[in-house]
Amino acid sequence: MHTALPSLLSDPLLIVVSLAGLAWALSRRPWHLLRRGSLQHAWLGAMVFVALLWTVRATLVGGLVIQLLGATLMVTLFGLPLALVSLFVVDVVSMLGLEYLAGHSWALFDWPSLWMRYVWLALLPALISAALQSLMRRTLPRHPFVFILGHGYFCAGLAAMGAGAAEAAWRHWMAPGLPFSTADTLAAIVILAFGEAFLTGMLVAVFVVYRPQWVVTFRDEEYLRD
Question: Does the keyword Hydrolase apply (predicted)?
Fold first, then answer.
């Protein structure tokens, strides 16, 4: 969930936060994971899927936008560093696609929204997902069902809710006079969380069962012990 109003996009803090997250992710050299031949096709396919996901959205009255994130899915499949780098590429590609479909020229591209989209659709939900998954690995039994239910469904829903609530608070702090009611905002967050949990959980379940080599956070020696 985010807003389509350009008046909210001038906060330089979003740029600083985005660059800091990207710098950390790049410092981890996550591209080494792609040396696995089995992971390269999955990574490219996931990038295309999430880029398409980011171009499908519903805009409510007043400019409130609801769209699925895919951040938890990327973190679960590829780990946090590679997910952050990949989601930035997705952000750029999907924004170019949206601007092209809108018929905008290069001079009219809304480049500041690139950073807002990255923070609320990628960076924050990815960080929440990684933190929750780390907590689950330390506290919950290592079982495939626990992994699918926790990493796929619960993490995705909670990350979407957390990012949506944080974005709503930031939006009201930046521009308290926006035409969004509390009921509309809560409804958008709940809808987003349920959709994100269902989509991510379903895909994680399929990949864990049929393509576990695509899920770097799922290790056979940990979750399939006798």
Answer: no
Residue-wise pLDDT for 37-79, tens only, equals: 789 999 999 999 999 998 887 776 556 677 899 999 999 999 9
Q: Which two tokens stand for residue 215?
A: 């899920």
CATH topology classification for 2-223: Arp2/3 complex 21 kDa subunit ARPC3 (1.10.1760)
Positive/negative CA dihedral, 123, 160, 33, 143: positive
pLDDT 10s digits, 15-43: 899 999 999 999 999 999 998 878 999 99
SS3 62: coil
Structure tokens at 172: 């009201």
pTM of the model: 0.90
Q: Please, what is the angle between helix 155-174 and helix 182-210, to 10°?
A: 150
**Helix pair 155-174, 124-139: axis angle to 10 deg:** 140
To which H or E segment does residue 114 belong? helix 112-118
Under the phi-then-psi rule, with left for phi > 0, alpha for psi from -120 to 50, and beta for the rest, what region is 79?
left
